[in-house]
Amino acid sequence: MAESSGSELAIQVRDLHKAYGDYEAVRGIDLDIAVGEIFGFLGPNGAGKSTTIEILEGYRKRTRGDAWVLGVDPGKPTRQWRERIGLVLQDSQLEPTLTVHETVTMFSDFYPKPRPVDETIELVGLKEKRDARVGTLSGGQRRRADVAVAIVGDPELIFLDEPTTGFDPSARREAWNMIEGLKSLGKTIFLTTHYMDEAQHLADRVAILAAGKIVARGRPEELGGATEQAAVIRFRVPEGVTLEQLREAAQAPVDIAGSEASLQSDDPQPVLYRLLSWADREGRKLEALEVSRPSLEDVFLQLTGGAPQSAQEVAA
Amino acid sequence: MSDVALVVKQTGYSLKSISRNPRAVVFTVIFPIVMLLLFASIFSKGGDAHTSFQGGQIDTDAYFTAGIIAYAIAMACFSSLAISLTTERESGLLKRFRGTPVPAWTFIAARIVRSIVLVVFQVVALLVIARLAFSVKLSAEGIAEVAVFSVLGTAAMCALGIALTSVTTTPDSAATIAPFGTVLLAFISGVFIPTDQLPDSLVQIGKIFPLSHLASGLQAAFGTGPVHLAGEDVAVIALWGAAGIIVAARTFRWEPHTQS
Question: Which terminus has fewer CB within 10 Å in chain B: N or C?
């Protein structure tokens, strides 16, 4: 059951349940999150992500099950416990009329051993905006201010609830660098996101939540490219070649969608060999040839019943 | 840092933030002062006009000074608290604060202390302006009575402002209902228009609410002759305040309504 062999746990959850009236939002979750890791908690909207994170943050009471966050029951949050935890909430905004420096200073007063304010502002990349009012910042900069406020108390554990939602790609990259910087400070990070590339890039381990239950867990590369998952071969259909010819050449169930041919195989090497030899013999060119393991996104969509948009599902 | 020190610091940030909000500055600070200058100039007719009050006469300038003090207390406490707390709740700031180690009450306390600071500033400013511009004088007993009603009015109006946040689910609704309600009551409570110039039915409606009793309690302090605390005014304000505390304690929420 224990996933992190031997190392100390920052968060441990057993059979966590949460019901709102008759509706069960969380239906028996187990988690073991080691000190110092970035844990990605994924799931579509309504899967129970927010409920779970809010239980662990001490905002909501669980209906059933056990939870320990830094060794403390989050259902009974204490002042000492809150001093060890940093929060970036999904929809919370800071006071727009105060400057970044004033805001971070204000929050630093809440903690017994805060980090230096200017150093914290620099760490999140807001040095240039130190004296700008929070209300004048861009969306990405405001999120950084949220992070500054979350880490100024020098917490051991940081909850990041969808920290990059609404970011443009370059802002997201910068945020990723910042989060990796937090990890290098030895912080444990509980990250929720609905960007699979974000989880793949940042998380040491992920759990995928669907309808209140964890449906998959593991390292992102294991989940995405697990050996039991078939590889996908894609290429552009050469002109004048029929589906039957391709199937015969590959000796595999090739599919054609538009101008793209794709096929799924547990053992792609001989299939590729047959295809390439055939192309060589016929003097054909297999353009846009690509072999890929299903990504975390493919796994996510499969498990959570998302729209079938990956080639393997078309082929299946 | 002790919790009391935290409240003081929070109050400082809260005052700083309100001072950078032009709408708040205009409505809570500037508007009452302008109103005093305006009404006293319009109605006092050169300084010797009198308004009938509780069977006797009171200098019209003094009457308006007292009424505008009541209005300023309602704006600085009832209206300002309702707007701030609703805005801070709906933006998620209150929820964010509640996730810090600091006891949640300190945030509410800091906003109440901010209202108290604003009231002290307004009462002193209005009294000084009334003295300099309209020669409105207060006896020693009068000062004591102004102090008593200011404290009582501040407490009740703060409680009612917090209670109002249970029905204002958006910052816009708070910023509409609270000041509009206060202005409306000011017209029928002897604040903007002397009660002897109003139809009795409107005066009676006004008397249901605390603003009219706060105004008349303060107006009595400016009267000549023996000053007495008006028991009825104290009782009505205290009852409204108690109701506000009960509603506030039972319905106050930290989390925004807009959450999914």
Answer: C
Q: Angle, nearest 10°, between helix axes B210-221 and B140-164?
A: 170
Overall average pLDDT of the B174-195 stretch? 94
For residues A28 and A64, the answer to whether their CB atoms sit within 8 Å is no
Burial of A69 (0-12, 13-18, 19+ CB in 10 A): buried
CB nearest to B101's CB, from A91, A111, A133:
A111
Find the residue in A nearest to B258 (Cα): A91
Task: Give the number of other CB atoms < 10 A from CB of residue A304.
Answer: 17
The residue behind tokens 């609830």 is A161
DSSP chain B: --HHHHHHHHHHHHHHHHHT-HHHIIIIIIHHHHHHHHHHHHHSTTTT-EEEETTEEEEHHHHHHHHHHHHHHIIIIIIHHHHHHHHHHHTTHHHHHHTSSS-THHHHHHHHHHHHHHHHHHHHHHHHHHHHHH-----HHHHHHHHHHHHHHHHHHHHHHHHHTTT--SHHHHHHHHHHHHHHHHHHTTSSS-GGGS-HHHHHHHTTSHHHHHHHHHHHHTSSSS----HHHHHHHHHHHHHHHHHHHHH---S-TT--
How high is the ipTM of this complex? 0.90
Sorting pLDDT into bands at 50, 70 and 90, what band is B229? low
For A137-188, the pLDDT digits (tens) are 998 899 899 999 999 999 999 999 988 877 788 888 888 998 998 899 899 9
> CA-CA distance, B70 to B188, in Å (whole number)?
13
Name chain B contacts of A93, Cβ cutoff 8 Å: 91-93
Q: How many Å apart are CA A148 and CA A120, to the nearest integer?
A: 6
Q: Which of B6, B93, B99 sits opposite A87 (nearest CB)?
A: B99
pTM, 2 dp: 0.84
Residue pLDDT, tens place only, A207-259? 999 889 998 898 887 776 554 567 788 899 888 888 888 888 888 888 888 88
Q: What is the pLDDT of residue B43?
A: 76
Interface residue ranges in chain B relative to chain A, Cβ cutoff 8 Å: 1, 6, 9-10, 13, 16-17, 20-21, 88, 91-93, 95-96, 98-103, 255-256, 258-260
Give pLDDT, residue A312. 36
Average pLDDT, chain B: 91
